[in-house]
């Protein structure tokens, strides 16, 4: 008899389990809209123990902080910007702290240097040396001319921006290259005459660019610089800044012209009909020059120049100061491009940028793009963090940035094959670092206050290189009113000084699908695998709530998952995940044969618990390969009123009120 009853009971349990899963399967397989489950799905008859690894933040322990799992930050925009983890498990092993850059170990120590006032100075042990300087200047982008050899003494300034120095002492010789900014007095007077009697109230533009640094990589490798920008200079970092093409030209052409390379006249040098870029492109520095600005443009690598590697380059010198000439010579003389003799090249580069701001009192526009340390190495740029942060701090301290829009940015993220093959690596490539700062006095002024407020609003909205072009032009023609929200459907180029619509999509912003990082909501109950994942996450949420109330178990009853009202997940679009590389030499045709797997996704669930009638809305970050879920307790919403359910705890611990049902309320609200 006992054995028969055992078999009957076992049969009843199996039948009941199959019946429950049958109802569950029917619920999601017959749903017409897989974006949401339109009616509650009862929890399967499984234990409440979670089979996922759980990371919890947002506890009410004095260390509460926002996390990537914030429910409120994901659901308010048409473009849901990915919230990336700086220590993401997929990519963090690619990064390490680089060894210091030691130029003086591979080269004889430079006999001379330029002091803080850019005056020629011999090191003490070579103080008696006799030195000469030979200037060299641009003929075109591929050749240069040399001047006469002249003597140069301690404390003198160099005769031109670029010079070859040769010194002799006791039969020994040393030669090296030096760069500094020699003030163009005639050009300065010409600009002053052209602007006489007109308003000179435009802001300076101080624009430092870096090659191949995603926002996450910039933060990893240059933390002191980021700390200065955000906490001292007050820079706004654009979290939704999305590239629009492959490589540096596709980053800077939209910024500097408002157009794509394909939209502009042909400039690719392998074609006989190609034009020089300055003949074909309406560069924004021309607008600044016409408005009385002294201009400068410089890159640190002549052999891979943005407008000279694949494109035809400039017929005429593009700006008043232009550094390509120096690096053409430096790449011939120095085998290690990271160094100019015993001096790290980036120090010379930063000094040149500083001197440009020091030499002139008229409005200044400077764009300097640096690539040598970051273009081919994922970590090496970290060696310049101290120098870069010190440079910016010195510039601010001495007042050189008091009237300047300061932009520090990168063209795109790293494109190294192994990193790019990961889910996070693909996203990081498309989300480079971009920061802007207005001078404090200006952003507190009548005309700067609104623009600054709008910039801060726009930091988490979808922005692109196209938007930087009108943002720069507004510096020249500052509108009287920045209140009107721009219509994203009418223009892909929207000024950051005005509110960018929350509803903006990649299509409206001119971002092709395979470059678009905006995440799309998909139903997460449309397959058995998705459903199992959703219930596993739901159980993890309930377990986390129970763990939080465990310390008050004498007052608060443990909860169990009752049902899921809906579950959806934020995932990248198919084009992004399939992107592998480009098929053509110009980077226009995407190769969509990639097989990158999604490694993480945000899930948003609405679930009910028992006892009681609590409903919770929760957004979590689920790491698929690790089977780990990040849950932010501070971001769990309780949309239905809990009334008297937590009366036994609410005065003692208000934070737990959302999670507690007192024992004497069980049954009263079920």
TrEMBL record:
GO cellular component, one term: extracellular space
CDD domains: ALP_like
Pfam families: DUF229 (PF02995)
Recorded superkingdom: Eukaryota
Protein name per UniProt: Uncharacterized protein
Source species of the chain: Pristionchus entomophagus
